Amino acid sequence: MTRTNVLMLAGGFFLIILFDLFQNQNAMAQNQIPLEDFFKNPEKTSYQISPDGKYFSYMAPYESRMNIFVQKVGKDKATRLTSETDRDIAGYYWANPGRLLYLKDDGGDENYSVYGVDKNGKNLKCLTCFEGVRTQIIDDLKDIPDEIIVGLNKRVPQVFDPYRLNIESGEMTMLAENPGDVQGWMTDHEGKLRVAIAIVDGVNTQIRYRDTEEDEFVPVLTTNFKESVNPAFFDFDNKNVYATSNLGRDKQAVVLFDIANGKELEVLYENDDYDVSSVFYSRKRKVLTSASFTSWKRERHFFDKETGQLFDRLKKDLGDYELGISAISKDENMYMVRTYSDRSLGAYYLYNKKDDKLEKIHDVSPWLDENKMASVYPIKYTARDGLVIPGYITLPKGLTMETAKNLPVVINPHGGPWARDNWGFNPEIQFLANRGYAVLQMNFRGSTGYGREFMEKSFKQWGLTMQNDITDGVYWLINQGIADKDKVAIYGGSYGGYAVLQGCVVTPTLYAAAIDYVGVSNLFTFMQTIPPYWEPMLEMMYEMVGNPVTDAVQFEATSPALNADKIMTPLFVAQGANDPRVNIDESDQIVEALKKRHIDVEYLVKDNEGHGFRNEENRFDFYRSMEKFLGTYLK
């Protein structure tokens, strides 16, 4: 064969490769879903049932903001109750058969106020509108129609006092004065305030109890915050409480707890591998019904045969979808059921238990075809010190773990950091997968649900072993052949944003691009600008994150803004100007430090947002910028 023939043959192969590449790119372009479809407000969501079971309610857009609508069961016409146009309603619920309550803040400042409105849209009233004050719902008092118990920090910004609030008149009565360390309150089934949970000396958790509202609270159990008893609700004699507890064990278990004497009476359910996170009961039948925990999916343990049969009945019609019950009528005959999966935001169904009738109410996002979405796979890998790190990988549609090779990848560490990623539909992850990226989410040490030991391994490890867990996930992907080592980006919000910046410091050549969303950049200034109601827990934060005085050397080494001279990665930073948790100064610092060194940094600030972008148009701007940024450096 002549040299000319060899060149012609080689050229033919080259043309075939180019043709295949063109075909792949063309197919990806044809399957590309509009960005807005992932991030626009749902058509209808957050469905609930009125206590009498005659109406259902939901949230839907009105002038691009999520507002409340009410519809009579069996009818087609709905009534819009609210007309908020500056910001989405943060959440709502039925207070009684005729009135609903909702929470809203101003510009993302998280100083939520409670508003009340009748089911016909009349008598709308703000019940806790005090400037600079945050409202907490302590108890919705389902058996007392016109009252709720709220917590307000209007007396002292650092602590919340409990008040009994009349939702018609707005009249309030203080039930106890917070001595300065109480972080939570609990009532019995008659709505009497009888339990207080305090943080003593900043690091010890103390349960305080009283028999009646005329008595003084008395300490009954004090433990270091690493051990905890979390009262869920009183038993049906209003004597003992059901709780989750890790006293003397690694994992949280469901227990019956003698609240008056501070002792566990009985372990009702525990899982060897995971913390039990929630426990539920039937208000009507007065029985314990179920407990839930999360392995790679949510799982349930049933205490009650009737509840187990209910879920079996629903699964018979709803198939392989995961499901949850979001609301129940007072007579426990009408159920609002929500389905979901890794590829679908799911739908809402109304189940009439008496008639055994399951009726589909609405798909949450009908414009998203789940057949075009990517699957989310559970994975595990071993960190450099031998700790097994669980997580999830999402691959572009059509690829499997066996066929995914040399892909551009986005590493996505979660916020918190004492939180965790879960299996389910995540619009960010599906958007990135639709654009051709694989996405790795890892539950690094400190992530919740895996027990006390796994949690404590994260203490004072911001930017150290916690960061290694993320880095080791990148190396695992590269060694698996899934990731193109030259096309790895990292994106995260809050603590995840901190991990993005620290990753750029400690592994400056590992990432081709980085996106920091409301992330911490300087541990010193972060500790100085926490919200006032975090201050009672400051000693605990010192033990978990570090002390800016005694751990100053470590803080200097693990604060990205103070080590910006090591950053070479192109960076995109997004921040809400009113963020009460991660002050805008955190983003300003890192941007200014990099601009001084002429590092490519893009900065997006929204003046009407806080810790994450809630308004639809701001979400669009952020993800458009993200898409363009990743396309520049990874494609």
Describe this structure in words.
With 635 residues, this protein is of the alpha+beta class. Among the domains are: 44-174, Neuraminidase (6 Propeller), CATH 2.120.10.30; 373-634, Rossmann fold (3-Layer(aba) Sandwich). 22% of the residues lie in helices and 34% in strands. It is built from 12 helices and 35 strands. The strands form 8 sheets. Strands 28-29-31-30-32-33-34-35 form an 8-stranded mixed β-sheet, with helices on both faces. Strands 1-2-3-4 form a 4-stranded antiparallel β-sheet, with no helix packed on it. It has a 4-stranded antiparallel β-sheet with strand order 5-6-7-8, with no helix packed on it. Strand 17 (229-234) and strand 18 (241-245) form a beta hairpin. The longest helix is centred in the N-terminal third of the chain and has 28 residues, at 3-30.
List the helices and strands and how they pair.
Blueprint: H1 3-30, H2 35-39, E1 45-49, E2 55-62, E3 65-72, E4 78-80, E5 91-96, E6 99-104, E7 113-118, E8 125-126, E9 135-139, E10 147-152, E11 161-166, E12 172-174, E13 182-187, E14 193-200, E15 204-209, E16 218-224, E17 229-234, E18 241-245, E19 253-258, E20 263-269, E21 276-282, E22 287-294, E23 298-302, H3 305-318, E24 322-328, E25 334-340, E26 347-352, E27 357-363, E28 376-382, E29 388-394, E30 407-411, H4 427-434, E31 438-442, H5 452-456, H6 465-479, E32 483-493, H7 495-506, E33 513-517, H8 523-528, H9 538-544, H10 552-557, E34 571-576, H11 584-596, E35 601-606, H12 616-634
Parallel strand pairs: 30-31, 30-32, 32-33, 33-34, 34-35
Antiparallel strand pairs: 1-2, 2-3, 3-4, 5-6, 6-7, 7-8, 9-10, 10-11, 11-12, 13-14, 14-15, 15-16, 17-18, 18-19, 19-20, 21-22, 22-23, 24-25, 25-26, 26-27, 28-29, 29-31
